[in-house]
Design goal:
77% of the residues lie in helices and 0% in strands. It contains 15 helices and no strands.
């Protein structure tokens, strides 16, 4: 793709609209690989070209802005991501109408960001509206409905309702197993959510096979150092820790934290949650000085208190 982009630039010039297409595709590839800084530069360049050619409210321009907002979310710049998503959603509602699936997707996107900012009431409202849009479509668009369903389950989980969260994650898992390849990486997301709900309820024995399956799926489809693999390592490490399997837990917890921090930066909620797992492990092993050093890092970040639940495995905006 890099070679194709270079050829396109040489033949058509760097400001040609077709260049923006190659920039977007390469940017998405880099996001999937976890190379977020380079991806952001490509997204911004492509967005500038597309806006210049098509204007600020053309649908593909709005989609490009949404992609950029999603990357801002990944890197923990939640205020910027929220602002960008709100602007895009407002324009898409006017242009496409209230019940369009693109509008539903954008409500899902914004709901995820608001959830990670602790704005649970508005997040829940947006996610429920997105879910309703998909389910009101002909033949009930159940596959796409699993995205807001899973993200809504995380909101419910963080509010402490494990029973309802378990029901939602279980429904999403059933739908994804029925509609996709059993080893599809998206099947891992509800597996992780369900596993963490069971872990929160004090049932690590039931959580273990779910989280193990999720790790197998992601490791078979993604690079070892991908942040989504790191999320499952963190979750599985917490499960092993709850079972008292300290030797098995240690590499999972520390590798998960290191991977997520490298790929999603210290600002992201996923990194903070992974750091909490590291502290839990150090406390359990009596490594007080190490635990206090990590707590100091949390304090510097302004994230000393751990919320109920975890962002591990959440569906992306």
């Amino acid at each position: 793709m890099r070679e194709a982009l270079a050829i396109c630039r040489n033949m058509l010039g760097s400001e040609n609209l077709l260049v923006s297409v190659y920039l977007a595709v390469l940017g998405q590839t880099l996001v999937e690989r976890g190379n977020l800084d380079e991806a952001e530069a490509l997204y911004r360049e492509g967005l500038g070209i597309r806006t210049e050619w098509l204007g600020p409210v053309e649908p593909s321009v709005l989609s490009s802005r949404a992609n950029l907002a999603g990357l801002l979310w990944l890197t923990g710049r939640y205020e910027e991501a929220e602002s960008e998503y709100r602007q895009v959603l407002s324009l898409e509602e006017m242009i496409l109408g209230d019940q369009h699936t693109e509008v539903a997707q954008r409500r899902n996107n914004l709901g995820v960001v608001l959830r990670d900012r602790g704005k649970y009431d508005e997040a829940e409202q947006l996610l429920r509206r997105a879910l309703a849009t998909y389910r009101q479509r002909p033949h009930r668009d159940q596959v796409n409905a699993t995205c807001p369903l899973i993200n809504l389950a995380w909101v419910v989980f963080r509010r402490g309702d494990c029973i309802v969260a378990e029901e939602m994650f279980s429904e999403a898992l059933k739908l994804r197993r029925e509609s996709r390849d059993a080893a599809d990486h998206t099947v891992a997301e509800p597996l992780i959510g369900l596993g963490l709900v069971l872990l929160e309820r004090g049932e690590p024995e039931r959580a273990l096979p779910l989280l193990t399956e999720a790790l197998d799926i992601r490791q078979s489809r993604l690079p070892r150092d991908h942040w989504r693999v790191g999320e499952v390592l963190t979750a599985l490490g917490g499960c092993r820790l709850a079972l008292g399997q300290y030797e098995a837990a240690e590499p999972l917890v520390f590798e998960g934290y290191t991977t997520i921090k490298k790929r999603r930066t210290m600002r992201s909620r996923a990194t903070v949650d992974a750091l909490h797992r590291v502290i839990e492990y150090c406390d359990a092993r009596g490594r007080r000085e190490e635990a206090e050093a990590y707590r100091g890092l949390l304090s510097e970040l302004g994230n000393a208190a751990r919320p109920l639940g975890c962002t591990c495995g959440q569906d992306s905006p």
